[in-house]
Amino acid sequence: MTKKTLAQIQSQIDKLQKEAEAIRAREVADVVGRIKEAIAHYGLTAGDLGLDGKVSRAPAKKSGAKAAKTEATPAPKGRRRAAVTNAVTAEKPAKAAKAGKAGKAAKPARPSVIKFADDQGHSWTGVGKRPNWFLAAIASGKTADDLRVPTAG
Q: How do residues 15-32 score in pLDDT, each as one tens digit?
């Protein structure tokens, strides 16, 4: 087994990258051709595909029994509109990401830990606005440390 030099490996990488770019260009051309064919076949407009910034509520134009669904269903209030079904493959797209920073997964909710409590049954996690019972206890002479719940450990 012969050892390869760094220059030889870099040359192979460059060659493979050029080959990958050529393959991708061919595949993109094929996909664009199929999309254009489907658009022409179903008589789709930019509005039907959701590309004009407006939500289309008109029924999709159907051509035959196996016409692909192109109308998005309205999402529950407070959620992003579901993506349009792919007219070329008639497959349902993946669920739309939750509102927030793109590319970041939503963090799972953690249970709240009670940090402050009084003998009346009131409790507070220490997050957010101070509750009235806490303010009243402070005004009556107690300190936050008096109301703090002891932690285990």
A: 999 999 999 999 999 999
Q: Look up the domain containing 136 and give its range.
A: 116-147
Scored b (16 or more CB within 10 A) or e, 41-54 reads: ebebeeebebeeee
**How far is residue 75's CA from residue 72's CA, in Å, rounded to a whole number?**
9
CA 80 to chain centre: 9
Are 39 and 70 spatial neighbours (Cβ–Cβ below 8 Å)? no
| C-beta atoms surrounding 32 within 10 Å | 10
- The pTM of the full predicted model, rounded to 2 decimals, is 0.31
Please indicate, yes or no, whether residues 92 and 126 belong to a single structural domain of this protein. Answer: no
